[in-house]
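Hello Y.,

Per our agreement to keep a running log of every chain we model this quarter, I'm adding this entry. I've kept the format consistent with earlier entries: sequence first, then predicted structure.
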Amino acid sequence: MKRTFKNRQQKPFKYLIILTIILIILGIPSYIWTKKNVSTLAGRYNSPMSPIIMIPGSSASADRFDDLVKTINKQYGEHHSLLKLTVNTDGKITYKGTIRANDDRPFIVVGFINNKDGYDNIKKQAGWFNTAFDQLKSRYRFSSFDAFGHSNGGLIWTYFLEHYFDNSSINIDSMLTVGTPYNFEEKNSSNRTQMLNDFIKLKDKLPSDLTYYSIAGTQLYTDDGIVPIGSVDAGKYIYEGNVKRYTLITLTGSKAQHSDMIANNQFISIFHQYIIGNRLSNPGGGTNKKSTEPIK
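Predicted structure for the entry above:
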């Protein structure tokens, strides 16, 4: 009888040991993941880098903004690095260029092998961009960035922000787009395309602290030669009231055509003032605060 009682006492103790071992085994991966995640977040928090990430429009490669970057560096006496990524259809990424050490405000351009037009392709491109964005976050550990998109590049940004972007660990400060056709070729905003309706449905997913500037070009106050002003203006149904600030700016005169706008002097002034000047601390170029002068 004594032996049986003793065995009964030992069984709960044996189970307790087994349970403790199981919990330790299960807890090790969780501990490793937590430690790694905290380390990554700490690295992002301490990172001074805040890049300007750019997406070109349809049929354009990652080389699309080379002249723009050269012009800005020369005109403002700054020294922004230029890194270019091209995403293949299988998600593989090729890199061209480098980010100079201690450059807090580099330009990063993300282009695509499949850079064709159309809503279906825009959705695919947003997914490929998300792959590139994840790599950039992991490699450079920045905690904030600014965005720029030309033409369909703005559509890719919008789809990305609504479907992929998680602002719990990283912030998008300001975004600027040029000639972005939120309603494609439709001039009348009451004739909404499927894409525009889809964007409007998910507008609550947009980061609420975003400041967004949308630029429309015009030759005859109707379009920029390709995109109707009404299509660019349709962005207000997506962004207005859902982000911190939404502003529509119209460019006229010389180089206000769709493909030429990024070489327009007025555009360059706007871009520098509201995107680069948003937070510029550039070695070799000094520290520039956001300008409070009106756009001319």
